[in-house]
Design goal:
15 helices, 23 strands, 698 residues, alpha+beta
Length: 698
C-alpha cells in the first residue's frame, strides 16, 4: 500500500468519526424531543480496483421499526375512541346524579309512590294530595331536564365532530407536505430524518382521531387508509367534507364525504367514499357512536319511562272523578275521526251528577252490542241518546268532549266493574284523555289501530326512516309516502318491501304500535323516524306520534300536570262513581279517596312499554339509571385499558428508537478514540513521508 493510500484511508476514518460524532451529538441534543428517532451513520468499506481504500460515509439514517410505529398508531386509535366515549358518558352520569341521591331519577319516582301511600292514610287531606301532585310535577321536570341535557350533549358532540374533521384535514395537509419533503430529499440522496420525525408525530396525532393503516412507498411517501380501507392520502391529497358540525342537534346527520384537494386544501371532486359510522375508530368514531347510538338510546329509554309513567298515572285519574264532578271533560287530540272504527270492547258508564253528587242521568254503553262495524260516531250518538240531553258528547278535530247541560251539574265517566271498556288495553276515558293527570298537546296512549284501518294521511306527505346496526352504522334509509285511501297494513307492507325489509320485518303489535323485529344476524338493530310531514285527517297527529315506534314520540318535552290540578289539589280525581246508583241517589261523595289506593297499586303494576319491555315504573327507572351507570363504568374501564396499551406501545417504540444517554456517551468515547487513531495513522504516514523525502535528498 502506498503512502497516499494510507493517508486517504486515515482521512476517510477521520471523516467517518466526525460524522458519527455529529449524529451522536444530535441524538443527545434531542433526548427529550417527543417522537424523535435516533440517527445512525451508515458506513461501508470503500473499494477501488479491487482493493479496500478507506471508509465511505453515507447519510444519517433513522433507527426505527415500522411494526412498532404501526402498533402505536393502532393503539392511539383505540385510545381516542375510548377517551371520547368515556368523557361524555361520565358527563351523562354526572347529570343523572349518584345512586340513591334525593334528586336522582329513581328517587323522584319513589317519591310519587310514597306520596300516593300517604294519601291513603286516615289523616290524609289536602296537604298530602298537594304533595302527591307536586311530586308528579317534580318527576316530570326531572325527566324533561334530563331530556334537555341529553340533547345538549348531542349538540356538544356534534360540534366536536366538526372540530375533529377540521383537525383531521389539517393533519392530512401537513403529512402531505412532509411527504413531498421526504420524497425530494430521498431522491437527492440526502438525509430526511428531521422531516420523517415530524411526519411520524403528525401521523400519530392523526391516528388518535381515526383508526388508520399506514404504508411507506419506495420513494418514502406514506399512504394512509382508514381501517375500513378508505384512502385518505396517497400521491394526491384528500380532505374530509362535512356540511354539518355546527353544533345543532338533528335526528339524522349527513355522512362525512371525502374529496380530492389541492395543496392549499381547497376541495375538488368527490372520491365517492364516505365515513358514515363509528367503525372509523379513533376519537371521530367515538363521537359518531355517541351521537348516533349511545345518547339517542338513552333518550329513547327516558321517553319510554315517561310514556309508562304517564299511562300509569292517567289510567287511575281517568277512572275517577272529583267531588263535585266537573261540568266539562275535554279530551286530548287522538288522531281519530267520527268515521273511524270504534275498536272498543266492554262497557263504560257516563253519568250526569248534581252539585251534591246525586245522580241526574246515566247511560251505560255496551261496545260489544254496538257491533264490530261500529264507528266512533256511533258511540257519540249512543252517549247523547242515553243521556237524553242532560249532557252532550261531541267529537271534533280528534277530540272528545263531554259537557253537562244544566248549570251546577257535572259529568263523570266510570269503567264497568264486570266488563271494563278497552281499546289497546286502555279504558274509554283514558284513551281519549278525558280526565288526565299528565296532559300534553295530544293523548299519550297507544293508538289501537289495526292493519285494516285507513291510515288517513293525504297524498304528498311522507315519513323518513333510518335503520342502524348495534355499532351505529347506517344500514338503510327509506321514505314512506302514504297513498291516499290506503290502510295501515299497506304502509307496513310498503316498509317490508323496501330497503329495510332485508334487515328485519315491520308489523303492528296488539296495541297498534309499529314494531320492528330485526334479523337474527343483527338482533339489536334499531329503526328511528328522522322526519315526518304527515297529519292524520287534519288532527295534527303524525305517523310518528301515533305509531309509538320509540320513546322519542312520547311527548315528554311538552308534558305537565294538568293546570287546574296543579293549581288546586282538590281537582285530583280520587273519588269513584257508583255505577249502579239510581236517579236521585248519591253517586259520589266527599272523602272518597279510593283513587289514592289505585295510584299505589298502579305504580307497582308492570306496564307494557313496547319493544318487549314490561316493567313497573319504579323498576324501569332503576334500570334506566343502572344501565347508564354500567355503560359509564364500562367506558371508564375501557379507557384505562386502552391508555395502558397505548403507553406500552409508545414505550416499546421509544425503547427501540429513542435516545439512550449512556449508549450515546459511550459511543462518543468510541468515536473520539477512532478519530484519534485515524489522526495517529495520518501523523505516522506523514512522518514516514518526511523520512523518505529526507533519504532521497541526502
Amino acid at each position: 500500500m502506498s503512502l497516499s493510500d494510507i493517508l486517504g484511508s486515515a482521512l476517510s476514518g477521520m471523516n467517518a468519526a466526525q460524522a458519527g460524532l455529529r449524529s451522536a451529538s444530535n441524538n443527545i441534543a434531542n433526548v427529550n424531543t417527543p417522537g424523535y428517532a435516533r440517527e445512525r451513520v451508515s458506513l461501508q468499506a470503500g473499494v477501488t480496483a479491487g482493493r479496500v481504500s478507506g471508509v465511505l460515509v453515507g447519510e444519517p439514517e433513522r433507527v426505527a421499526d415500522r411494526f412498532l410505529e404501526a402498533n402505536v398508531y393502532r393503539r392511539s386509535g383505540d385510545w381516542g375512541r375510548a377517551d371520547a366515549v368515556a368523557t361524555y358518558l361520565d358527563r351523562l352520569q354526572t347529570m343523572l346524579g349518584a345512586p340513591g341521591a334525593d334528586g336522582g331519577l329513581p328517587a323522584r319516582i319513589d317519591a310519587i309512590g310514597a306520596a300516593a301511600v300517604a294519601m291513603t292514610g286516615s289523616v290524609a287531606g289536602e296537604q298530602t294530595v298537594r304533595s302527591f301532585v307536586t311530586n308528579v310535577q317534580d318527576a316530570l321536570n326531572g325527566l324533561q331536564q334530563l331530556d334537555r341535557d341529553v340533547t345538549a350533549l348531542r349538540t356538544d358532540v356534534e360540534g366536536e365532530v366538526g372540530f375533529a374533521v377540521q383537525s383531521i384535514n389539517d393533519l392530512l395537509r401537513r403529512i402531505d407536505t412532509l411527504n413531498e419533503s421526504v420524497a425530494r430529499q430521498s431522491a437527492m440522496g440526502r438525509a430526511s430524518g428531521g422531516a420523517t420525525d415530524l411526519r411520524m408525530t403528525a401521523v400519530e396525532e392523526l391516528s388518535g382521531y381515526l383508526k388508520i393503516n399506514v404504508r411507506e412507498g419506495t420513494d418514502g411517501r406514506l399512504t394512509i387508509e382508514t381501517a375500513g380501507g378508505v384512502t385518505l392520502l396517497d400521491n394526491r391529497l384528500r380532505q374530509l367534507s362535512y356540511p354539518a358540525g355546527t353544533g345543532v342537534s338533528q335526528p339524522l346527520y349527513p355522512p362525512i364525504g371525502i374529496r380530492f384537494a389541492a395543496d392549499d386544501g381547497s376541495l375538488g371532486a368527490a372520491t365517492g367514499e364516505q365515513l358514515d359510522s363509528p367503525a372509523v375508530g379513533g376519537k371521530l368514531g367515538g363521537l359518531l357512536e355517541l351521537r348516533d347510538r349511545l345518547l339517542p338510546d338513552f333518550g329513547e329509554r327516558l321517553g319510554t319511562l315517561f310514556g309508562g309513567l304517564a299511562e300509569s298515572l292517567n289510567a287511575v285519574s281517568n277512572a275517577g272523578t272529583t267531588v263535585p264532578a266537573p261540568p266539562r271533560l275535554e279530551g286530548g287530540t287522538t288522531g281519530l275521526s267520527t268515521a273511524d272504527r270504534l275498536g272498543f270492547t266492554g262497557r263504560v258508564t257516563v253519568a250526569v251528577l248534581g252539585a251534591n253528587g246525586t245522580l241526574a242521568a246515566r247511560t251505560t254503553i255496551d261496545f260489544d252490542a254496538l257491533g264490530a262495524g261500529a264507528t266512533l260516531g256511533d258511540a257519540v250518538a249512543a252517549i247523547n241518546a242515553g243521556l237524553g240531553g242532560a249532557a252532550t258528547a261531541s267529537f271534533n278535530n280528534g277530540r272528545l268532549i263531554l259537557a253537562a247541560t244544566a248549570p251546577g251539574s257535572g259529568v263523570a265517566v266510570a269503567q264497568d266493574p264486570m266488563a271494563p271498556s278497552a281499546r289497546a288495553g286502555i279504558g274509554f276515558a283514558h284513551y281519549f284523555g278525558l280526565n288526565d293527570l299528565v296532559a300534553g298537546p295530544g293523548t299519550m296512549t297507544p293508538s289501537g289501530f289495526t292493519s285494516g284501518d285507513p291510515h288517513g294521511f293525504p297524498a304528498g306527505q311522507s315519513v323518513h326512516f333510518a335503520l342502524r346496526d348495534p355499532a351505529g352504522r347506517l344500514l338503510g334509509e327509506q321514505t314512506l309516502v302514504p297513498a291516499a285511501g290506503g290502510t295501515f297494513g299497506d304502509l307496513v307492507a310498503s316498509l317490508n318491501a323496501g330497503p329495510m325489509g332485508s334487515f328485519g320485518s315491520f308489523a303492528l303489535d296488539g296495541r297498534g304500535r309499529l314494531a320492528f323485529t330485526p334479523a337474527a344476524a343483527i338482533p339489536t338493530a334499531a329503526v328511528s323516524i328522522t322526519s315526518d310531514s304527515t297529519d292524520r285527517m287534519g288532527t295534527g297527529r303524525s305517523f310518528f306520534s301515533l305509531m309509538g315506534l320509540s320513546g322519542e314520540s312520547s311527548g315528554l318535552d311538552s308534558a305537565a300536570v294538568r293546570a287546574d290540578i296543579l293549581a288546586s289539589a282538590q281537582r285530583l280525581p280520587l273519588a269513584r262513581l257508583k255505577t249502579d246508583a239510581l236517579p236521585g241517589e248519591r253517586a259520589i261523595g266527599a272523602g272518597d279517596n279510593r283513587g289514592a289506593t289505585a295510584f299505589v297499586d298502579q305504580l307497582r303494576t308492570a306496564v307494557d312499554l313496547g319493544r318487549g319491555r314490561v316493567a313497573s315504573m319504579e323498576s324501569f327507572a332503576s334500570q334506566v339509571l343502572g344501565r347508564a351507570g354500567m355503560d359509564a363504568a364500562e367506558a371508564a374501564n375501557r379507557l384505562t385499558d386502552m391508555d395502558a396499551r397505548r403507553s406500552e406501545a409508545i414505550h416499546r417504540r421509544d425503547s427501540y428508537s429513542g435516545v439512550n444517554m449512556d449508549q450515546e456517551l459511550a459511543q462518543l468515547m468510541v468515536l473520539q478514540n477512532s478519530y484519534s487513531a485515524a489522526a495517529r495513522v495520518m501523523s505516522t504516514a506523514s512522518q514516514m513521508y518526511d523520512t523518505l523525502l529526507g533519504m532521497v535528498q541526502s
